[in-house]
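Support case: user asked for a sample of complex input and structure output to validate their parser. Sending the pair below.
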Amino acid sequence: MREWRVSTPLSEETVRGMRVGDLVWLSGRVVTARDQAHRRALDLASSGGELPVDLSGIAVYHCGPIARREGEVWRIYGFGPTTSARMEPMEAEFLRTFGVRMIVGKGGMGGRTADALAEVGAVYAAFTGGASVLATDSVERVISVNWLDLGIPEALWEVEVRDLGPLIVAMDSVGGNLYREVASHAAERMGRLLG
Amino acid sequence: MLEDSIVAGLREVISRAAVSLSRDVVSALKAAREREDSFLAREILNSILKNIEEAERRGLPLCQDTGTPTFFVHLGDGFPVRSRLGDLIARAVRESTPSVPLRPNTVDPWTGRNSGDNTGRGVPVIRWFPVEGDELRVIYLAKGGGSENVSRLFMLNPTEGVEGIRRAVLRAAIDAGGKPCPPVILGVGVGGGADAALEAAKAATLRRVGSRSGDPAVAELEERLLEDVNSLGIGPMGLGGRTYALDVHVDWMHRHPASLPVAVSMLCWAARRGEVVFHPDGSYEVLEPG
């Protein structure tokens, strides 16, 4: 088990060195995207359009913040992760299209995302679900917000963070997958319990 | 006046539930941390307990998903405000949204438009229970989408019996994995029909952690399901460990001879529940929930 203090942009070499069970404290630029933002980003890319923010080398955070506009600035009051499984139908294509090096979320993702992580060189890191105040403490500032027409939770929030963590590397780029291990152990145990 | 006092009491319960967890849940989480020997499970429970402390100390929402506002209204025969209550509840939610702040969580399913104030068609969700007496008792639940999304309904063949119920609960837990933010409070509704079973399962998650059904056989089933579900090893946040559920609560109704509905509802560890009792003069007490 290793501990990493890293800043975005992340290199492929760095994330390929990460293994499941490692802890990460992340600094730099992260961009939130939930299912609606994933859909719009992919639609935009497939029609040759350009995203309002650059995602290469950064972490995409599955998060719909609590945010309130105070004068000229947006202030974040809640910054915990949302359930990543909702993005599963789009994440593999998202990883291949935008050069993201880390997905931060909760609850894990499926086999297609796992394959894409290995292919492009990226990891899935879990932040403790519901630990919104701890995540909020890592927020330095809101750099930009786009696609507010999707609503506050679904918009694309570009945020500078310092030491967002501990993140637990739960799916790595060499096939390590804590969720799959846990699920297969649980299925085996259920079989024994019910005979 | 009376109506303003009702809105004030509701706002207090909404804001308290967003920020502060009830003692039963906090002590169960602390006990879970002592029980875990996996490094990651302990690390996760440490984050959860630290988050609870910081939220309370600073008056910030525990979780950014401040949930769908749901109210279980026990309306006494003699309470002076009746048909206006629905409007007052909606007003309390609307006013609480910027003041707590709550995240706007109410979206038009056809246009995708967020109403911005946590109210809309059918929201806040209100369940009405007429009761004796002259008081109004309101139980508030703000449940997040992650845990609501793993709700399950199994229409079993009645011959599957208790073993079928065990199988359904374990299946629901394995399929849910880390998605509902475990450790969860797990509610099970048996019988009554599809809709009634789901309502009973959700209402069961409101019960105090550590409480047992008054029916001895059902209490025993609760203990057994708790042991079963935790023995799966899914653990906090689905990353392995001994604590998937802080407790399992079962409620039941008679069933149709041909049906055995079993519903499973999970409430995340950030169990935002609250309770307030109003007297006919509008004075109120916000209670420790559960």
